[in-house]
Structure formats: C-alpha cells, structure tokens
Amino acid sequence: MPELVLGIETSCDETGVGLVRGTTLFADAVASSVAEHVRFGGVVPEVAARAHLEALVPTLRRALGEAGVRRSDIDAIAVTAGPGLAGALLVGTSAAKAYALALDRPLYAVNHLAGHVAVDTVEHGLLPTPLVALLVSGGHTSLLLVDDVAHTIRTLGATVDDAAGEAFDKVARLLGLPYPGGPVIDRIAADGDPAAIAFPRGMTGPRDAPYDFSFSGLKTAVARWVEACEAAGRPVPVADVAASFQEAVADVLTAKAIRACREHGVGDLLVGGGVAANSRLRTLAEQRCAAAGLRLRVPRPRLCTDNGAMIAALGARVVAAGVTPSALDFATDPGLPVERVSL
Amino acid sequence: MLILALDTATAGVVVGVVEVAAAARVLAECRTSGVARHGEALAPTVAAVLAEVGRRPADLDAVVVGVGPGPFTGLRIGMISAAAFGDAVDIPVYGVGSLDAVALGLADAGGTTYVVTDARRREVYWARYTDGRRVDGPHVGPAQDVRDALAEQPADRVVGAGALLYDLPGAVAAGATAAGLLAAAVPKLGQGPPEPLRAAYLRRPDASEPRPRVPAVPR
Ligand SMILES: [Zn+2]
Fold first, then answer.
1. Distance, CA A334 to ligand 1 centroid (Å)?
2. Number of structural domains, chain A?
3. Which H helix or E strand runs over A302?
4. Measured between CA atoms, how close is A76 to chain B, in angstroms?
5. How is the beta sheet containing A76-82 ordered, strand by strand?
6. A contacts of B57 (beta carbons < 8 Å)
7. CATH number, domain at A145?
8. Mean pLDDT, chain B, as a whole number?
9. Are residues A2 and A25 in contact, defined by beta-carbon separation less than 8 angstroms?
C-alpha cells in the first residue's frame, strides 16, 4: 500500500493541510485569511503569517478528523518550501519540521507550483507525460513543460509583470467591485458582451516571447477606458467591461497554452491555479483543446486554489519516485524556481 | 517531568531539556547568538539537544515556549514549532513571556531589573522586574523610553541585547535560558490545560488601506 502523506501549505493566505495516499485524497482542510485582507485590497504578508500561526495546528487536526486517521498513521510529510511569501512559508516549514522530528517521519520540502500540477492526480489519476501545464492565480502565471511531476519540470514562460489573478483584482477595484476580483468579475461578466470592447492582448506580437505573458498593459487599457467613460459623463457598462477584460485574459492564456502543446508535440494540457476556476477560461480551454485535438485536465475549483491536498499529492509522487527526504535544516525559498521540485 | 524549552524571540535560538523533580535541572541546553536563521537552525538543534540527553520526543511531558515580544518572523518559528511538536506527541504547550525568561534566567534577579531586547526599526522591547516579578511592560518603543523609566526607577541591573545596542547605563549581556523559560512556566505547570498560545506582537502589521476610488458602479 502506498504511503499516507501529510501535506502542509502556507505559501500565501490559505493554511492548507491535506492527506493523500497514492492518488487517493483522504482530507483537504483549509483555513483562509482572505477576509482579513479584503480591506487592504490584497494579501498583507504579516497578516497572512499571523493567521497561519493561529490556524495551522487546528487545521491539521481537522484534516486528521476528516480522514479518520491518527498522527501515527502518517508515513511521510510534505511541505511547501517556495515559491511564496517568506514569513508565511516559514510557519508551514517550521511546523512540518517539528511534526517530522516528533513523529520520526521523513520530510519532503517541495515546490508549490509543482503541487498545482500534481493535485490533479487525486481527481483524474496519474498524469500523462509529457504534459503542458498552465498555472494561473493571484500569485503566478506560468506555462510549464512537465516531463515528470516528481522530478523534471521546465518553465516555458511566465508573466513579465502582473499575475493573471492580480489583473482581476486590479480591474475589480477599477470597477468598484470587491476583493478578490476573480469570482466577482466572472459573475458580472456573465451579463456582459465579451466582444463589446477590444482590449489589447499583451505579448502576442510576432517578436514577443511566445510563452510569456503581460497583463499590466491590459489593466492600464481598462483603466483608461473606464476613465474616458466617466469623463464623458456616461455610465460605465460594468458587465461589458468585465466580460471584455475576462475575454482578453482567457484568450491570451489559452492561445499560448495551445501553442505550447503544439510546438512541443504534447497532447495533454492541464490548467490549474485559482484563476482556473474562471468559467470563461475553462470554456475557452475546452473549445480550443477540442479543436486542436488535445486532452484537457482541469481539477475541480476547490483543488485549483491553494490547499494542502496539492502538497500531499505532490509528496505522494515524490515519495513514490524514491526521492531522498529533505534535511531538517533546509531553507525556504520565496523565489524557488519550478525546476526544483523538491529540496 | 521532562520539559522541552524553546525561545526564538531574539537573534538567537534557545533550546533546552529540563527535568523537573523536587527541583529543576537543566539536562542539556544549546543557545546561539548573532543573526540566526531560526527556520533552519531550530529543528536540528532540538534534535541535537534531545540526542545529547538520550531522550526521544515521546519521553517529553510538556513544551515551554517564549511568546515574545520579539521580531515577528523569528518569534513565530519558535511558537509554531512548539505548537506542532506538542500536538505531534500530545503534550501540553505553555507560552511564557520571552523577556520574563531573560529576567528569571539571571543568577541574581533581586531588586530592580530592566530587560531590553532589540525590536529593530530603532526601537526596543522592554520590561521592568522587581525581585523577578514583572511590574511594568512589556513595551515596545525607543530606547529613550527606557532611559526615562530608569531616571524614575533606578535599576540594579539593565540586561539584554537592546540595552547594549543603545548603550543604556550599566548594560550587560543576557538572554533567555532554558532555566529562565522553565521558571517563567512553573506557576502554570500542572494547573490544568494551558491557555492557547498568543504571540505578544505589541505592534500592528504594517499595512495601509487603499484610498477609496470613486466606484464606477452607481450605488
Ligand atoms: Zn498557488
């Protein structure tokens, strides 16, 4: 029987603890501090770190209760070592080290981005190889070529400025909508016309890096458009702006992901990260994958956002691959490149 | 009773194993100073101190941890480690004031003692003790606050890295010790389940609310 792996995730504002055996999810407990960040319009690192300290042990207890297992049933522990917020990562890794030491279990320091890929194993089974992964959230926008999620991942491209999720937050703010922007824009866009306004598609020129992204120009274009509208004394058509902005984001993300699959001869695309919950991104990815003859994997929204299950799922892959456990003195790395799946 | 004592509220880490029978006896202790990378140093130090006394985590009866005040990131590393360790082996975790653990770790704590540690940003954490009992603080503020307090309540001793850093009169080095942590916890030990750990941050998080934008959506 495969090992029961405990996964601990504290890279941003979600305290996540998951339990996975092989590709079976046993528990996925999350405590979010998102409500505490709302009035600041974005994640405040110190607020997030304080929340992790308070929430971690209770969340772990909840995960054990959900799975109906005891601490002694845990065979291995995996924890996010980066990328993420420095102070937040230190809470999770310190806890993981203490559990590993106290329970005398091997510890695996792993990469958060690889976790977003590996989590799909608990929903759709083992990953095909190779695989192209598009990871989009408030913190990351990456296009990855995954040869083996436990070992070999290569970055094809990433955002050169804002993360896709950040663009949703900023545009929501422009439109007077609450933080976080993703869900509310998705909802309001449903009543708008995605073709109403032709917002720019960043980094899509012939001389631009084919797999990199830029959302800063799009955000500025939306701001200018809204300001011009207000200056002219016209009411802002919020639903049309939201729908047209969302269309621009989904269009660029899916076009580049499909191109990456085609140019690397890869038949499978995975979309993960919090923005993968966006309905337009999902629909467009489905349509374009079908048209290009690609298989699409998108974990359910709950597994796309940050959680402990993704780290447990990655831990299960890393353990199965026979990777050497991490030493107790490993250092967190807020900028950990995805090429380093484990430390 | 075998107790693991931890503190990461200063630039160093303090880890000790203390046996409490009729009297407390420190079986092993490791204290680092300087700018320690707490997150990397703490767990291996706990492992080494336990190995030194030939005991396993399951042999422990309680954990005592300093809850600050201290620089936040380092402080949290000790606190979450203690909380996780205690949860893993199902033993109580007692939080004690990190400045108290300095005062109570002194060989002689009679009379008036000021404990002053570095709070960064040109400030100190400080508290005043009479015969080892905290009577003022903990506070965070400029070293001048301590000078003002000293003018009103002269000290028998002024200790801690903050006192040395700002050259307070009569300043001597001293830090938290396993014995000090234990002494601060003694009134709580065996008094039922411990209170939940609460960090003594003394400062609010740095964060400003964005200026409200005139919403585009008519409300
Ligand atoms: Zn993430």
1. 12
2. 2
3. helix A301-304
4. 13
5. A24-32, A14-21, A4-9, A76-82, A107-111
6. 101-104
7. 3.30.420.40
8. 92
9. no
3-state SS assignment for residue B108: coil
- pLDDT tens for A129-144 read 999 999 999 888 999 9
Chain A residue numbers touching B217 (CB-CB < 8 A): 175-177, 236, 238
Question: Domains (ranges, CATH) in chain B?
Answer: 2-99 (3.30.420.40), 106-172 (3.30.420.200)
Task: Give yes or no: residues A64 and A166 share one domain.
Answer: no
> Which residues 288-327 of chain A have a CB within 8 Å of chain B?
327
User: For residue A203, how far is its CA from the centre of ligand 1 (angstroms)?
Assistant: 23
Give the position of tokens 């974990």.
Answer: A299
Q: Give the mutation candidate from B13, B50, B87 for the A interface (greatest A CB count, under 10 A).
A: B87
Are the beta carbons of B76 and B199 closer than 8 angstroms?
yes
Host domain of residue A227: 128-298
Same domain, A10 and A140: no
CA-to-CA dists, residue A226 to A171, A199, A221, A240, angstroms: 10, 12, 9, 11
**In the 8-state DSSP scheme, what is residue B170?**
T
Q: Say whether the ipTM exceeds 0.90.
A: yes
Q: Which two tokens stand for residue A188?
A: 């309001």
Domain identity same for A150 and A277 = yes
Q: Kindly give the parts of chain A with pLDDT less than 70.
A: none
On whether residue A156 sits in a domain, the answer given is yes
**A343 domain-assigned:** no
pTM: 0.95
d(C-alpha A124, C-alpha A122), whole Å: 6
